[in-house]
Write a structure and sequence with these properties.
about 260 residues, mainly alpha, two-stranded antiparallel ribbon, 10 helices, about 0% strand
Length: about 260
């Protein structure tokens, strides 16, 4: 009963927020997201914590999407970024809809290991921040495209300047990059302590390091050459795609395709 209630609550309120008309968007957007978010957390509690820490592909998506929504609520309570909520809500709705279809059993065996749990928590925070940065970068890209083509976008607008939003984007990127660095390098150099297995270089590690290099390059270019605009946004999206391939791509192949 709790699961069905949480499922309906989260899904219906995310859908309501995505379909919200312009007239009411500014007044009740955040409350709708907060209600949907708590329903989302209840689903995670049911499928992750009550099932012996089942960290399968579907639950991993649910947790990272919940973190992304959390960062949206945290950063956009006062911001007037019209349309960003829809870019957040639509993939979250799809993740919840397909949650039951892709659900598998992939239990975390070493839940008593403080090193393992710390690694997982930092990784979730990193993926959540970098997912939010990719979505925010997409929003900025839409605004810049409209500005360059001298179009008035009815679905996307902001009271903030493009330059201000780009500065904010890079603050998020620096934070996510720091957490991603901790995640990747502790996984490589302390594999025995965290996973109880020696480090193995595989496709997951390859794409993970490649995404880290991509984020490092973007941040270096920002500091050295002040990179901004469409080029910066597209590089952020490319780095995020590599990150998705590193973690969710490998989990999808191993747990869904090859299972």
């Amino acid at each position: 009963m709790l699961y069905i209630t949480s499922y309906i609550l989260s899904l219906s309120f995310y859908i309501l927020s995505a379909l919200l008309s312009k007239k009411y968007e500014g007044k009740i957007r955040t409350p709708l997201f907060i209600i949907a978010f708590f329903g989302h957390l209840s689903l995670i509690y049911n499928d992750f914590f009550l099932k012996s820490f089942n960290f399968d592909f579907s639950n991993a998506l649910m947790i990272v999407s919940a973190m992304t929504v959390f960062f949206y609520i945290l950063f956009n309570t006062q911001a007037k970024n019209k349309g960003l909520d829809k870019i957040i809500a639509i993939p979250t709705i799809l993740i919840i809809i397909f949650h039951g279809i892709f659900s598998q059993e992939h239990l975390i065996r070493d839940t008593d290991s403080i090193f393992y749990l710390a690694h997982i928590i930092i990784a979730i925070l990193a993926y959540g921040l970098l997912t939010y940065s990719a979505i925010f970068a997409t929003f900025v890209l839409f605004l810049e495209e409209g500005l360059h083509k001298k179009k008035t976008l009815t679905n996307f607008s902001s009271t903030n300047s493009i330059i201000g939003m780009e500065k904010f984007l890079f603050i998020i990127l620096w934070s996510g990059f720091l957490l991603l660095s901790i995640t990747i390098f502790t996984g490589i150099f302390f594999s025995n302590e965290i996973f109880n297995t020696p480090f193995i270089f595989n496709h997951k590690t390859f794409f993970g390091i490649l995404s880290w290099i991509s984020y490092a390059y973007i941040l270096y270019q920002r500091v050295a050459n002040g990179i901004r605009g469409k080029k910066a946004v597209l590089l952020v999206l490319l780095a995020f795609l590599l990150l998705v391939l590193a973690y969710f791509g490998s989990k999808f192949v191993s747990e869904i395709i090859l299972n």
